[in-house]
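Data card: per-record layout.
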Amino acid sequence: MAVKKFKPIKFPQDEQAHSSIIEWWYFNGHLLGEDGKKYAFMDCLFKADSKKVKIPFLKSLPTKEVYFAHHVLSDIGNQKSYKKIDPLCLISKDSFKKNLLFIN
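The structure for this 104-residue chain is written out next.
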């Protein structure tokens, strides 16, 4: 059996956008409100190559890449979650070149 060697991870390059057809980044965490209430969040930013994915609507857009996002905020104490989908996110030319990911 051949052993596959992996390249070492290089930051910040490896956490930035690549030339793949679809790519995504997850942001997860726990929050504590000033009132002591506990929350959890999950944000996921997706990037798709609009010319290569097999979604007719995306192929008609005048841009090579499209970004969209899913968000969930969970109120732990009340056992409720709040979901939101952003079907289109605005990304600037330098969004992936700054020290922190920057998305409007």
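Known properties of this structure: The domain at 19-86 is CATH 2.40.370.10 (AttH-like fold). The longest strand covers residues 38-49.

See the next section for split statistics.
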